[in-house]
Amino acid sequence: MHDFEYRNGELYCEKVRVQDIAGRVGTPFYLYSYKTFTDHFLKIKKAFEPVKPLICFAMKANGNLAVLRALVQKGAGLDIVSGGELFKARKAGCPGARIVYAGVGKTDQEIADAIRANILLFNVESIPELENIQRVAHQLKRRVNVSLRINPGIDPHTHDYIATGKSESKFGIDLDTAHLTFMRSMRYPNVSICGLHVHIGSQITDGEPFVKAFRKVLIFVTSLEKEGHRIQYLNLGGGLGIIYSDEKPQTAAEFAKKVLPLFKGRRYKLIFEPGRFIAGNGGLFVTKVLYIKQAASKHYAIVDGGMNDLLRPALYGAYHEILPLTKATMGKVQKYDLVGPICESGDFLATNRKIQSLRSGDAVGLLGAGAYGFTMSSQYNARPRVAEVLVKGNRFDIVRERETYQDLIQRERVPAYLK
Ligand SMILES: Cc1ncc(COP(=O)(O)O)c(C=O)c1O
Predict the structure, then answer these.
(1) Domain Orn/DAP/Arg decarboxylase 2 N-terminal: where (predicted)?
(2) Which residue has the higher pLDDT, 168 or 327?
(3) pLDDT of residue 332
């Protein structure tokens, strides 16, 4: 569910006409609904109310400071994967005690910064990383909390690029190695291995792979406890799927109904790391038609937004529903490929899509762009990154300015011998 809808043929975000924003901001831009983001967070919170989990928004999905602040104000924590995300999380006002840190390649500097920020937990992805955290924590004379990210060897039935819980994936530690690590925990005096973490993938629409993975975690944790190890935190990751086209994903309540019974009578602090579920449907990518090009077998709508702005279609073949900002009441329907201005054949936002006839100057929105949209964008083809706008009720604010040409060269230097 989301807060983009037509009224009298005009697309609105909450109470603001999207065309009015486009007129003020120019295209392309990302448009976010405060209400959709916070409602989705609150849906998970409510569904799991009986166990009061820590819900850490996976900020790789959407790292805008205003978005983060909105969620943190509602009680969210943040799931980070880099020193840069730690920096932004702190700027957004997230207390260290609500930050968990995943990622397979944490550097010494990133580890030290996270220790100094008093984060809740490192999600450790390998034994060399654990040894490194021990070394850095020792240098800083600190003791830090760690969850071992285990790889349960589960196929989450999603796109290969976003499946992380299969045994051949680069993420996490296999159960035997994890067990051995608990047995050797004395080797890490500056580390308390007090949690387990599992994240099997993204855009998972069915509860079954989650349940399978969590059962494996529970069997493992039970055997650890029998051996005398104490587990305080179970981080169950993110991955909840959303509707892009005709998916029928589980709701937060349905997910909780499947998951909560598994943990009945257990006293772990549960942690979740949803990204897409909170942000995905709360964002629209707005772009304008530059040219309509009729080729032998196709109509191309060439728009001012490209794969550098919204990478998901090119990267995963992802589907985003197209919503013209003004709905035609009559006229014919046409089949289009919506393509960008980038010099790559892979630069498309949609293919073979039947929509109302488009003309140069028409603006359209691509739905489902609130997660892994702006965060994956780049300056490829020397294109300044687009603006981000947040709507709350009847107001809208630019929460990231459109970059300028000057921004493209800000950090570049021509050596003296070339001058
Ligand atoms: C460790 C971890 N947690 C959470 C997430 C968020 O996943 P999603 O956006 O599917 O909820 C990811 C995504 O890649 C991840 O790698």
Answers:
(1) 37-279
(2) 327
(3) 85
At 297 the pLDDT is 86
Q: What is the dihedral of CA 223, 226, 231, 235, to 10 degrees?
A: 20
How large is the C-alpha radius of gyration of the chain?
23
> Of ligand 1's atoms, which has the minimum distance to the CA of residue 197?
1
Q: Average pLDDT, whole number, for the chain?
A: 95
Among the residue ranges 62-66, 209-213, 397-401, the one predicted with the least confidence is 209-213
Ligand 1 touching residue 239 (CB < 6 A): yes
The structure tokens listed for 339 are: 């393509």
| Residue type, position 246, single letter | D
Q: Indicate whether residue 125 lines ligand 1 (CB < 6 A).
A: no
Q: Which of 37, 41, 199, 247 to mutate to test the pocket of ligand 1 (most atoms within 8 A of CB)?
A: 199
> Using CA positions, which residue lies closest to atom 12 of ligand 1?
238
User: Which member of 13, 56, 94, 343 is catalytic?
Assistant: 343
Buried b (16+ CB within 10 A) or exposed e, 227-266: eeeebebbbbbbbbbbbbeeeebbebeebbeebeeebeee
pLDDT band for position 169 (cuts 50, 70, 90): low
Mean pLDDT, rounded, for 144-169: 76
pLDDT for the residue 165: 59
211 CA distance to ligand 1 middle (Å): 17
- With a cut of 70, say whether residue 160 has pLDDT above it: no
Quote the CA–CA distance of 140 and 114 in Å, as a whole number.
11
> Helices then strands (H, E): number in the chain?
12, 20
Which domains, ranges and CATH numbers included, belong to the chain? 4-31+280-409 (2.40.37.10), 34-276 (3.20.20.10)
Whether the pLDDT of residue 193 is over 70: the answer is yes
DSSP string, 288-307: EEEEEEE-SS-EEEEES--T
Q: State the distance between the two ends of the chain, measured CA to CA, in whole angstroms.
A: 56
Q: What is the pLDDT of residue 167?
A: 61
Distance CA 81, CA 60 (A): 7
User: What was the pLDDT predicted at 162?
Assistant: 60
Q: Which is the closest atom of ligand 1 to the Cα of 372?
A: 9
